[in-house]
Amino acid sequence: MFLFAEGGHHTPLIVEFINHYLGEPVLRFQLAYTYPAWQWLFDKLGVKNTPEAVFGEYTAENAIPWYTIMFVIACILTMVAIWIFKGKLSGDDPKPGQLTLEAGFLALKDLITSVVGEHGYRYFPVVATFAVLVLISNLMGIFPLFMSPTASVNVTLALGISSFVYYNYVGIHENGLINHLAHFAGPKLPLLMAIIITPLIFGIELVSSLIRPITLGVRLFANMFADEQISSQISGLAPPFTQFLLPVVLMPLAVFVAFVQTLVFTLLSMIYISEVSHAPHEHTHGGVRLFANMFADEQISSQISGLAPPFTQFLLPVVLMPLAVFVAFVQTLVFTLLSMIYISEVSHAPHEHTHGGEHSEVTGEAIATAPV
Questions:
Q1: Span 10-43, pLDDT tens digits
Q2: 22 with 157, same domain?
Q3: pTM for the model
Q4: Which of 149, 244, 260, 341 lies 20 to 30 Å (CA to CA) from residue 10?
Q5: Omega of the bond prior to 322 within 30 degrees of 0, cis?
Q6: What values do phi and psi take at 143, rounded to 5?
Q7: What is the span of the domain harbouring residue 58?
Q8: How many domains does the chain have?
């Protein structure tokens, strides 16, 4: 939110300082190794562009991008913050920092057990790391000389891919590769229905899973980038007053946005883990599947419509509407079909018992009336 840099541009001084001393050796490494590698890849793909046209000019001033520096600082601050809050652990006389850390621990533990189940506590370390790291990254933009690394799509996509890789690792580790892929096909169906519906469900579930890193990354980036831009524009309206007074008023809103976006990212990661962590009880996750797919559809439409308004707010939604209708019908079909299958698993039990009772009653009457 506060960016005190020379010349009034938006490069934090700490980024300029690090590039001043480390930019030259990093630039030489890039020109010697990464630049030729990108050029070779572009040539192989038939892309008639140079790395400069894609990534920007190679200079010592931007050799280490600001978001890389800020993300490394966020990782360091995460470890420092936990160490400070932890302090000297005491069961008899806990300090305020320890109480704060315990409250966050219990809140996150209750959330993951309610979403994933009691067995979800085994995933707590990774999920908690995501939560603390994203929260620290979001809050960094509030302080002078810093920017939120999550205001860069490169960082948020990396976080989204990390979540994607982890929950797929959980699914493969617990269920095996074949069963993990099989859960995309939905429940077992009669042969005729399986030929028609199973490939359709598999394709939709696979595409829905593959776009999750994008939806996670773009959602977090769009909200944090918008927060940074709004704060930057407002602080430049009537300097120096708006550089000190208005940001103080907006700071509670920025903190609220940081916590909400952390909750959304962490909660969605938990939901994705819950879908693959208990394949034998997949029917408990029917509501989660429906929510995840429809929520992703809503978020994709929202993010696309905001790319270049007003054109993308009117033209693209018309193009995307048939796809949205198709997804709505397919998800309705999947949910209804699963409900029917689950009912069929238990609906024969009373019937069978009735038949058994009737059979016993008839047999008893026949024996009683039979001639001796």
A1: 688 899 999 999 999 999 999 999 999 999 999 9
A2: no
A3: 0.71
A4: 260
A5: no
A6: -95, 150
A7: 1-64
A8: 2
